[in-house]
């Protein structure tokens, strides 16, 4: 068996193109141009590179990109004040706090300063509740939301399937499980304290790896024909799944890079346009 690769790059391009057209129409009809404000604290090289890429993608989608760079020594209170200011600014439609922030900052407090209507990255507790309860007026976490769009594009219906999510972060693993549960999958969360992880993985019809450890999921553990979503990205373009082993067992597999990553950015841009449309309607 040789797994079919799920092309996130191509699907993301289609989403961004549609978002750009919606942004163009919004500007023509209302004069409102979608605006995404990105806040970055410190000068972590990977974060700086990632933010620069997002700004280029914003330009392609007709979205104004506003960058707020704060020094490494910024306190939680100072960061919260900046984010609240952006939340109160009617010209800003979406707010992204680049992760990770320096260790001395209370990241959760910073996330919660984002107004729900501008939480286009889906990181607040309000957005998580909206995902869990299926509220259409909330925004999904971008990586899990992008994964769901990939599953749809490749004809994968989660209903009745056993889905295993390896990882329980509040902005990836946990919301991923909620979105799969909402589509009638039977969801199991696994983590560092899971007993016999290999057995849990072996039973998964849909496997989502989100642990941040290179090649942590071994190909030999994967159920033949399973859908394998590698949401990890580690130095050297290595995911959380043993790609070579997975290709021999999985039915569908997301490559790294070119799978989940482009979808995350595409969802961020799409949700920024949606936030601007809602703002114009209000």
Automatic annotation (TrEMBL):
Key words, A-Z: Amino-acid biosynthesis, Histidine biosynthesis, Hydrolase, Methionine biosynthesis, Multifunctional enzyme, NADP, One-carbon metabolism, Oxidoreductase, Purine biosynthesis
Pathway annotation from the record: One-carbon metabolism; tetrahydrofolate interconversion
Protein name as catalogued: Bifunctional protein FolD
Positions bound to NADP(+): 167-169
CDD domains: NAD_bind_m-THF_DH_Cyclohyd
Catalytic reaction(s) noted: (6R)-5,10-methenyltetrahydrofolate + H2O = (6R)-10-formyltetrahydrofolate + H(+); (6R)-5,10-methylene-5,6,7,8-tetrahydrofolate + NADP(+) = (6R)-5,10-methenyltetrahydrofolate + NADPH
InterPro entries from the UniProt entry: Aminoacid_DH-like_N_sf, NAD(P)-bd_dom_sf, THF_DH/CycHdrlase, THF_DH/CycHdrlase_cat_dom, THF_DH/CycHdrlase_CS, THF_DH/CycHdrlase_NAD-bd_dom
Top-level taxonomic group: Bacteria
Domain Tetrahydrofolate dehydrogenase/cyclohydrolase NAD(P)-binding residue range list: 141-279
The family this protein is said to belong to: Belongs to the tetrahydrofolate dehydrogenase/cyclohydrolase family.
EC number: 1.5.1.5, 3.5.4.9
Gene encoding the protein: folD
Domain spans labelled Tetrahydrofolate dehydrogenase/cyclohydrolase catalytic: 6-121
């Amino acid at each position: 068996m040789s797994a079919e690769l799920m092309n996130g790059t191509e699907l993301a391009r289609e989403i961004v193109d549609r978002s750009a057209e919606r942004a163009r129409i919004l500007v023509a009809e209302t004069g409102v141009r979608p605006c995404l404000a990105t806040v970055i604290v410190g000068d972590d090289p990977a974060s700086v590179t990632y933010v620069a890429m997002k700004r280029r993608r914003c330009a392609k989608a007709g979205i104004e990109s506003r960058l707020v760079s704060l020094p490494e020594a910024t306190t939680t209170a100072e960061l919260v004040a900046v984010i609240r200011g952006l939340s109160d600014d009617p010209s800003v439609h979406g707010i992204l706090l680049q992760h990770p922030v320096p260790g001395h900052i209370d990241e959760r407090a910073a996330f919660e300063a984002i107004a729900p209507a501008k939480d286009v990255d889906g990181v607040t507790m309000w957005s998580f509740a909206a995902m869990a309860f299926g509220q259409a007026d909330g925004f999904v976490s971008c990586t899990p939301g992008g994964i769901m769009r990939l599953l749809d594009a490749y004809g994968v219906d989660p209903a009745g399937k056993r889905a295993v999510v390896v990882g329980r972060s509040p902005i990836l693993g946990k919301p991923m499980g909620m979105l799969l549960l909402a589509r009638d999958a039977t969801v199991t969360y696994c983590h560092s304290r899971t007993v016999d992880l290999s057995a849990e993985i072996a039973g998964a019809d849909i496997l989502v790896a989100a642990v941040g450890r290179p090649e942590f999921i071994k190909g030999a553990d994967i159920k033949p024909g399973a859908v394998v979503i590698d949401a990890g990205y580690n130095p050297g373009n290595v995911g959380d799944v043993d790609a070579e082993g997975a290709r021999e067992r999985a039915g569908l597999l997301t490559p790294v890079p070119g799978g989940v990553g482009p979808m995350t950015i595409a969802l961020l841009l799409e949700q920024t346009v949606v936030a601007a449309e809602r703002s114009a309607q209000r």
